[in-house]
Design a protein that fits this description.
It is a single chain. By secondary structure, the protein is an alpha/beta fold. It folds into 2 domains: 113 residues, Aspartate Aminotransferase, domain 1 (Alpha-Beta Complex), CATH 3.90.1150.10; 209 residues, Aspartate Aminotransferase, domain 2. 38% of the residues lie in helices and 15% in strands. The chain has 12 helices and 12 strands. Strands 2-8-7-6-5-3-4 form a 7-stranded mixed beta sheet, with helices on both faces. Strands 9-10-12 form a 3-stranded antiparallel beta sheet, with helices on one face. Strand 9 and strand 10 form a beta hairpin. The longest helix has 23 residues. The chain starts with 37 loop residues before the first strand and ends with a helix. The structure holds pyridoxal-5'-phosphate. Pyridoxal-5'-phosphate binds next to helix 4.
């Protein structure tokens, strides 16, 4: 009886959880049922690491990786060199999601306003609810642009935190640099923090890291899950003012990042060509898939990340297409309710050969979905 609950619903004798949790709903992460599919739905690295890298990793793995508590110093030093920031400006976290959770725990109080783009990373509003804060949503125009003036007007006293995924996900666009600066200036006036969530750096080619010195209220949050390809290891970091990081450090779970993650992330930083080569492949894959999509009468929307949005409504409904792709073993993301993503599906990009195979299946699936 593996699927039957051993706790049938009955009047609870258990204590109530924290009141804020009454408003929080979470769904379990996708599990082994996704294994038969080619998952182009979660923006992971979708091709294997080079053989020489895996060899180096095997050679570096020792018993101590397993039996000792994690030591962060080497990775910290490597990150400091690669970001050109003193070590005190960096905090390692369990994924970028871990950094976000710590940020809420350290800074957000009930009734604070948390500004975020809409749509954006799904956990922002969940963390806001968890902390009894109010999510203030900044909607996109139908063409995926932002109304800069309206955005700035919403940064009013009461706003504690401005969360900007840059590039944003699932929208795929980078914020205009001058608007980002204006947001930072305005946020400083009202003593709010700004978190630039750069999960998709370096696919995007833009980073606010060099601005950290000028803007102590700016926190840049990064992950090893995307371009570095380590989604399974839960490695990320925040870069910013030591005082802000000190407060995040206060709430961190002891030994929250693990030795194997530290080893792999260090190895990636010591061999930046692994990331650079993957970024090149993804860009080439994106160009190829965009071209093929146009040939099918679909509308690819350029994205500054490792995914491509394709508007499909010229030919078919996104729901039917997603189902047809699933029947052919491919998982893609969508449909989306936001007006700026109407009629779109989102595909995680990979190397050109992989995208060429996907494009063939896409052509079949479009015909079947019409
Ligand atoms: C914008 C953005 N931020 C943060 C994350 C979380 O990434 P991770 O926790 O794997 O570092 C994601 C994951 O998809 C994302 O898209």
């Amino acid at each position: 009886m593996p699927n039957e609950s051993i706790h049938p619903v009955q009047e609870s004798i258990l204590p109530e959880p924290a009141p804020a949790l009454a408003h929080v709903t979470r769904v379990r992460e996708a599990g082994t049922e996704t294994l038969p599919f080619i998952g182009l739905d979660r923006n992971e690295r979708v091709s294997p690491f080079p053989g020489w890298f895996m060899e180096k990793l095997r050679a570096a793995l020792t018993s101590e990786t397993l039996n000792r508590y994690p030591l962060r110093d080497r990775l910290h030093r490597l990150l400091s060199e690669s970001l050109r920031l003193p070590e005190e400006n960096i905090l390692l976290t369990p994924g970028s999601d871990g950094a976000l959770k710590y940020l809420f725990q350290a800074y957000v109080r009930p009734l604070d306003q948390i500004m975020m783009l809409d749509p954006s990373y799904a956990m922002y509003p969940v963390y806001a609810r968890m902390h009894q804060a109010e999510a203030v949503l900044i909607p996109y125009e139908p063409d995926r642009s932002l109304d800069g003036e309206a955005t700035l007007k919403r940064i009013q006293p009461g706003v504690r935190l401005v969360l900007l995924a840059n590039p944003n996900q699932p929208v795929g666009t980078l914020m205009d640099e001058s608007l980002l600066r204006a947001v930072l200036e305005r946020a400083r006036e009202i003593r709010a923090l700004v978190a630039a969530d750069e999960a998709y750096y370096p696919f995007s080619g833009f980073t606010a890291v060099p601005w950290i010195e000028a803007y102590p209220h700016l926190l840049v949050i990064r992950t090893f899950s995307k371009a570095a390809g380590l989604a399974g290891l839960r490695m990320g970091y925040a870069a910013g003012h030591p005082e802000v990081l000190g407060n995040l450090f206060k709430v961190h779970a002891a030994n929250d990042i693990n030795s194997f993650g530290i080893l792999c992330a260090s190895l990636v930083l010591e061999h930046p060509d692994v990331i650079e080569e993957y970024v090149r492949e993804v860009r080439a894959g994106g160009e190829l898939l965009s071209e093929k999509a146009r040939m099918l009468g679909l509308e690819p929307l350029p994205c500054a990340a490792n995914f491509l949005l394709i508007r499909v409504t010229n030919r078919c409904s996104p729901e039917r297409l997603i189902e047809q792709l699933k029947q052919r073993n491919y998982l893609v993301k969508g449909p989306f309710s936001a007006p700026c993503l109407q009629g779109c599906i989102r595909i995680t990009l990979g190397p050109p050969e992989m995208m060429a195979r996907f494009a063939e299946v896409l052509a079949e699936a479009v015909t079947a979905a019409v």
